[in-house]
Amino acid sequence: GWEMLRWGYERMRKDLDGLDYDAIVVLSPHWQTYVGNHILGVPHFKSLSVDPVFPNLFRYHYEMDVDVDLAEAIHAEAQKDKLITKMMRNPDFRVDYGTIVSCHLTNPAWDKPIVGISSCRATSYYSVEVMQEQARMLGEATRRAIEASGKRVVLLASNSLSHRHFTTEADV
Question: How far apart are CA 103 and CA 29, in angstroms?
Fold first, then answer.
């Protein structure tokens, strides 16, 4: 069932091989924050990622560089719009698997720096309309920061497809 997704990544990698780009920006719903959005702000991460729910299914050694300058620029642009954002400065931070998997499938060489942005999950506190507006504003702030940097960036938006185990509720 996952072959079409894998093939899509293979086609995307071939398309990216012909492009000159500087960084990868990843918006991941698997890095859940409940107050605003957080942005990775440490130059280098190296660790073993083990899924807390299914540790036997996902164990991955990763090493990644972060484009901290671009991350800080996105943070600054978001703050200009009064969005709640925070730079994640913890060098021992466990990078979420949505970011790791998206980056690995897009660029298995890991030779491009990334900017990781969390998914604000405050929908239980705000209306969907407010969350959509904040997501739009974050996207615009991200675009402004990228344009001002002069960098060429690949934007990845991970999703929660893997969590759609059921489409209907079972009978009680």
Answer: 14
Task: Report the first-to-last Cα separation within the chain, whole angstroms.
Answer: 28
Confidence class for position 170, pLDDT limits 50, 70, 90: low
DSSP for residue 125:
T
Tell me which amino acid residue 43 is. P
DSSP reduced 3-state for 66:
strand
CB atoms near residue 62 (< 10 Å)? 17
pLDDT digits (tens, 9 = 90+) for 8-32: 999 999 999 989 999 999 998 778 8
Give the span between the Cα atoms of 39 and 67, in whole angstroms.
11
Displacement of CA 9 from its chain's centroid (Å)? 16
DSSP designation for 171: P
- In sequence order, the 6+-apart residues with CB closer than 8 A to the CB of 169 are none
